[in-house]
Amino acid sequence: MSTPCTTTPRPLHWRGTFHAVLLALFYALPWLRWDGRQALLLDINARRFDLFGWTLWPSDVGVLIGLLAAIAVSLALLTHVAGRIWCGHACPQTLWRRAFDGIARAASRWLPASAARPATQLAWGLLSLWTGITFVGLFSPIAELVVAAPNAGWSSWETFWVLFYAAATWGNAGFLREQVCRSLCPFARMQPLLTDPHTPRMLYDARRGEPRGPRPSGLGGVLGRGRGLLDPTTAQDYVFRAAHPLLAGPTPTFSADRLGDCTDCAACVSACPMQLDIRQGPQADCLACGACLEACAQQQHRAGFGPGLVRYCSPQAMAGQPRRWWRPRTLALLSMLLALLACGLWRLL
Amino acid sequence: MNRPFSNRRQRLIQHWGAILWPSFIAAGAASVVFFAFVDPLRLQAISFPDTTISRELGYTAGFFMFWTVTALSSAVTWYLQRPMPSDDDEELPLG
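Above: the input entities. Below: the structure tokens describing the complete assembly.
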């Protein structure tokens, strides 16, 4: 099933650009203007919130809480329907960790080894500081904040919160990293409540990939050379053997024509920011960021196989079952969202 | 860029994270709701009329007060959730 195209496929090529755009949006957010005022200013000192021309006063706290609740339910609904889109592509932890990774990679590529580490730390520190300033700029007019910075003109509270958020950024993206998603994030722990077998996630097609192993080039994929897909039980057996070598004993050796499409190159494992092996099956820590999918697609293309050994799809779809759009949780979350929106509409009209 | 954390370090992060992080979120939420209704300057006027404070000091002190209380609660929960020390003496040799 080799594809005739010559360019290396990058199934999630938009990922880097999308993350960069989201980061740029965050840094630009306090600089946006609306009717001569800062467009988004949560001025807690003056006790007024400006949200793009819409002003909220302390008496509007119900609207604010309703707005936050609607956002939270929308996020839950998005996760239920489309999987961990938020975690993999929009969560600040993911965005800043990738930005920090990008800085470290660039430093190690362009600078000598002795200078790379201090340069990385310096760049991380500056980015964290600017993040802190941007964050405080959402609560106190940013233009004045930046003008006052060189003359040490910040109030002690502005200084404190800038440093607090700079330290938080550095700590989360530079030190704790994947531990935040693994051990600290409450939203990650809530995933089993929101998802079901119809929710897409990052999955490895064991029926096509197993048994894994290196082989001489030019053999072609399992579908092309007629080996076909394994039955699910055999495929799971190979997955179990590979994941638990101590329990299962040594894996049998296979002739090259019986091997599946996984060449055991481990590109997926080294690409994973959570240090997971996607081939071991669905894992709670998987952020569905698509790093393994992209790495695997490139390796598969290089080996002359078709795409889709690692796929973003629901376990039901992977098993060939039809998709069900309306499940009890979809209806519950949708009705909650509609009720909140109706309340908001009723109050505004 | 992947570097494995040692087990001990990971346990420490989990332990302190489980206390500090949920209490941070709870304190943030509590501050938003509390200060939406209560102006720190008014609160100061009725509680400490002789001292002058800025709103920022009021908000910051309020947030850290909430965080201290919620973190204390998380810490006590952690302490109570630890397994009870067993009082059987299984480790002693029977002979």
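Note for the figure: The interface with chain A takes residues 1-2, 4-5, 10, 13-14, 17-18, 21-22, 25, 32-33, 35-37, 39, 54-57, 59-60 of chain B (CB under 8 Å).
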